What does this fold into?
Amino acid sequence: MADFEQAIRITLQWEGGYSNDLDDPGGATNFGITQADMPDTDIRSLTEPQAVQYYYEHYWKPLYSQIQSQLVANKIFDMGVNLGIGTAVKLLQEALGVPVDGQFGPNTLAVTNEQGEALLPAYKAKLVEHYQNLVVRNPNLGKFLDGWLRRANN
It folds into this structure.
């Protein structure tokens, strides 16, 4: 079964440190967490343990620990951090061919476990398409595309 500690280590490799890029719609972030996510915290001084706790409470969904493939759990969790949980799950559901509602429920879990790591190429293709569409809609995001594509395909 999937382990949060393994998933968060991968995500923190992508999301480490403070950033305040004017072209980033999320604004100032630290460890990928925005000021809007934690309005009562000075986001610039957020610590890694605080970020890990936040991600566990807000992003690691109860059913994620029941995903049989750690690689699949890592990808779904990481994409939820980068895209938002609803979008990451919708793209997963499209790749799985199940009803799309953005909720990681028992049916999505069952099909995810049935397909296992074999679902990753289709999921990654959906992620790439999504990122490319973001840039088409907002060309200012183009400077992020190479990083997004590396992350999607990792």
